[in-house]
Sequence to fold (416 residues):
Amino acid sequence: MTITYIHAADIHLGKTYRTSADDSERYEDFFHMLGGIVSDAIAEQVDFLLVAGDLFHTGQILPRTFARTIETLQPLKDAGIPCIAVEGNHDWIHRRDSISWMEALSQMGYIRLLRPSRSVDGGYHFDPFDPETGAGGHIEIKGMNIYGLGYIGTQAGNHVSRICEAVITENNLLLFHVGVWTYSPVEIGNMQPDEALPLADRFSYVALGHGHKPYIISTPEGRPYAFNPGAPERVNFGEEKYDKGYYLVNVDGGKYSHEHRRTSPRPMLVATINLDGAENADQALESFRNQITEILPKTDDERRPLIEVRLTGRVAFHPFELGRERLRLSLEEIGNPLHVEIKNHLSLVTRSGGEDDIKRSLSEIERDVLGELISANSSFKDRKDELVNLALAIRDQVIKGDVEGEELLGLLSREP
Ligand SMILES: [Mn+2]
Fold:
């Protein structure tokens, strides 16, 4: 018997930029991407579609995000193709109401949300999925046993033996929102390759999600067993060089073959612009414009790019003079970006020259100012560095514009 399925992950529906005027265009990118995968699933007549976590960008989504998700998944539901999903760190962290958006989708039959139950001694149980309640941890399709595990955080590696113990069937597949260290580009939520390896004995295919870059992990004998498709869209800056796509997998008589199908994400550019030696802000701006014009890729992609610019170099004017707004206007004129982030790392050199006169960079000045303000209060004095870092982290999140107020509060309540 032949089984065909699509394995996708990290769709991040609902991501937008609150600081951009054109956020609706970006917001639609992610639905468009999922819609394309749904169309492919129908065209390929797959037996099921896997979403290995982070269907949503945040735990608390807007009602319109829920409505657009239903609309996007409707053709799949109508075609009778099950969408089997687990929760990722983004879907999960803020769940505090009695029912999550993922659970609601599962009850309504748009996804089959798999989640194990736990016994008091920490054991895992994968109860059969019940379409009536939309809950369960295990589902069987055409003789393939599919198990689902969402995000269990940094302890994932310690749980592998208990997960394997809970599975007594043959011909198994595991959906698991976790990264495997060194392969995964993210730093949190990974396990070590040797911790993951026992999964290879129990599961023919481990469908990973979490890191937005594709990778495949093999046993020491060279059998690939764990697959991470990466996010199909470019979610964050830093993903501009990753291959983007999902896996189309075919199982024929127990033999697996996979293809990483490329998707077409929005153009993204991260540019470092060196303004070293600029005498004044006008000269720096001209150099900035010339360099950006050079760097911008010549493409026939109609979609407006996402651009992050890092300014570096020592200049003879105060870095504040080259204001964000001037840079932004120039960028808009040259590159017509949908969204821009500017990081100013310029440092000031005074006229007299010499090493002693190199003034600190903008980020050092920021740290000094914040440090003075914070240590002015004697009860904060001992925690100056920690609180400066926290203030800067919150500032960065606010500028990025895609975090909830609640998530920002979470940063504040974090243990030191
Ligand atoms: Mn993700």
